[in-house]
Amino acid sequence: MSSTSAVEPGTRLAERFRLEDRVSESDGATLWKAIDEILARPVAVHTFAPDFPRVHEVVTAARAASRLTDPRLTQVFDAAEDDKSAYVVSEWVTGETLTDLLANGPLEPERAAGLVAEAAEALAHAHEAQLYHLCLRPSHLMWTNGNTVKVLGVAVDAAMWGLTTDQPALDDAEGLGRLLYAGLTGHWPGDEEEGGLPAAPMIDGHFCTPRQVTAGVPGYLDTITVRACLPESRKGQGALASPAEVAESLADVARPMPIPISYPSTPAVASASHTEGLELAHRPKSAPVPPLPPPPMQRRPQGGGGSTLNRVLMTLVVLLVIAAVGVGAWTIGRSLGSPTQPQTATNTPTSTKSATINAEAVKPKNAKGFDPLGDGDEKTDIAKLAIDGKPGTLWKTETYTSADLGRLKDGVGLLLDMGKPMQISDVVATLSEAPGATVELKVGDSPELGSLKTVATEKNAAGKTTLTPEKATSGQYVLIWFTRVPTDAGTFHGTIYEVVVHSPGSA
């Protein structure tokens, strides 16, 4: 290409990336929305004017960033530089930036902390590869339409704007602290507004701490923010000097969960623009479904026929349901009245259901992170959060490099001490929504792996998972044992928000 102006909508790069819409242009760098014609997906493409001074640095940074594997970081698909053209192709991310999320004021403190915790873990991964961000702003942190956190522009944006530093770890830790400050207060702790956020208020020439700006900010989050980005207010507390240290300080924060209420009205076009990887996972579920409801909604105002037809259909459905209920009731009554007939298949589930209905929830006396095949402990310090009755708190395993626990061990789990031997009707564990976990329920009278017997197994478990023993089971110790853990926003770990153990009591 001879100039930026010569690159127009419709231009094809590498014989596959068709430029569609010019999104923004600044200092010789132009961002486009484009289509990858081979994979039929939207992508983001940066092109550069011939006199852009840092093309080589940008392409080099993009190629390095393309090797990052954490899905919470923008994926780079292609980067090229020659005499005719230079471009960088990355995933097209749709969702809400932190700026968007703050449009109506500060976030709930735990949600702000959860978003930044995810970003910190992702950046810690980038720093391990000696790749840095250096210019974190609210526009770089996104909550995607796929209900995940995404950090935009690692390495590439710094190269694009010529940013360098001799203390990258400290700079990115401060950037994360500013994002946390913004999430907690709706203000930006900088010399001027940022992305529409007002500058943070000051006292005696120093930025106010989050608690001084917004009521209800927990003390520990105030402290973490101060340690990350407000050196004047630390009062002897050590600085958080790297993304890894910020991530560690936020390790026990509940991670952001999807908010179903917010997304039913998301247009079908937006759901077709999910981030790479997530888009493919969600497309069979979401993309074909949303386009179906609009046509009937558009036709209804044209006349009464649609409403009449709907009433007729609804009446038929109600009659069918009534008929089905009647047949079901007659069948049950007949089986109860004819005990001599062989009804084994029917009676077994009925007795199981009765036992479950009569069962009572029993609170464990204690909970422990159980790692008998490793170092013995698996975050026992937060194990109690899985039995505290609060669905917003959680226990999770250590982070692993793969679903099979990094091939380090055969399993890891959460061990509950019920205080005394008792019969176990079932155990309901609320896991993360990420699919892919394999969990086993083990029960026994000794807290040793060899004496705990597997009584139920659930594969590809996610969300609320009920583990029901196939036959009568009793013991003092109950173990939820992960043999595979899901990808949870870029890393592999098992998560349990809450565990409820049911026992028939005297049974």
Description:
The protein has 507 residues and is α+β, with helices and mostly antiparallel strands. The protein folds into three domains: 81 residues, Phosphorylase Kinase, domain 1 (2-Layer Sandwich), CATH 3.30.200; 156 residues, Transferase(Phosphotransferase) domain 1 (Transferase(Phosphotransferase), domain 1), CATH 1.10.510.10; 146 residues, Galactose-binding domain-like (Jelly Rolls, Sandwich), CATH 2.60.120. The chain has 13 helices and 24 strands. A six-stranded antiparallel β-sheet has the order 1-2-3-4-6-5, with helices on one face. Strand 8 and strand 9 form a beta hairpin. Helix 3 packs antiparallel against helix 8. The longest helix has 33 residues. It is globular. The N terminus is likely disordered.
**Please, what is the CATH homologous superfamily of the largest domain?**
Transferase(Phosphotransferase) domain 1
Structural class: alpha+beta
Q: Record the strand order, biggest sheet.
A: 1-2-3-4-6-5
Write the CATH fold name of the largest domain. Answer: Transferase(Phosphotransferase), domain 1
Task: Tell me the β content.
Answer: 25-35%
Fraction of helical residues: 25-40%
The tally of strands reads 24
Mean pLDDT: 82
Rounded to an integer in angstroms, the radius of gyration calculated over CA atoms is 28 Å
Tell me about the largest β-sheet. 6 strands, antiparallel
Number of domains: 3
Give the low-confidence spans.
Answer: 1-5, 260-309, 332-357
From the spread of the alpha carbons, the general shape counts as globular
